[in-house]
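Reminder to self: tokens first, then the designed residues, so the page reads top to bottom the way the pipeline ran.
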């Protein structure tokens, strides 16, 4: 497990910035850094917002993936789940605790499943699929 030096002034400035507005993105590579698609076994694509583990904001009840991204940019999924707490601070604490234990350095959050049942369905679909939609390797499958 690696360590990272955090500049407190920078972290405070990032946290005090309004979270409701996304800054405009300059090019397509910034979209790839901020958003990532994961595919479920059903073939459904789920868009996730990507955060650094330490910079992740408070999160409402949502789906998440804890990911380790290596220096070459390869992503390995360490955990897939959904958050259940009504308090966003408890969800953030759960994500950071589990992420730190597993060695994650990214959190991928899917916010588009509105109910507990739908979040559970998304979680099970992603667990069964675990396919990176943006990877150059594609898996071919046929339906019978």
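Designed residues (144 positions):
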């Amino acid at each position: 497990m690696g360590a990272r030096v955090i500049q407190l002034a920078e972290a405070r400035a990032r946290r005090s910035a309004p979270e409701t507005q996304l800054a405009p993105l300059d090019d397509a590579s910034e979209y790839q850094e901020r958003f990532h698609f994961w595919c479920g076994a059903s073939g459904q694509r789920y868009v996730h917002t990507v955060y650094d583990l330490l910079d992740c904001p408070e999160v409402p009840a949502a789906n998440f993936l804890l990911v380790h991204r290596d220096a070459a940019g390869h992503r390995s999924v360490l955990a897939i789940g959904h958050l259940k707490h009504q308090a966003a601070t408890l969800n953030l604490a759960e994500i950071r605790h589990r992420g730190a234990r597993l060695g994650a350095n990214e959190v991928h959050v899917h916010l588009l499943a509105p109910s507990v049942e739908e979040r559970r369905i998304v979680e099970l679909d992603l667990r069964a699929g675990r396919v990176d939609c943006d990877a150059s390797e594609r898996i071919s499958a046929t339906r019978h």
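The CA atoms of residues 105 and 143 lie 36 Å apart.
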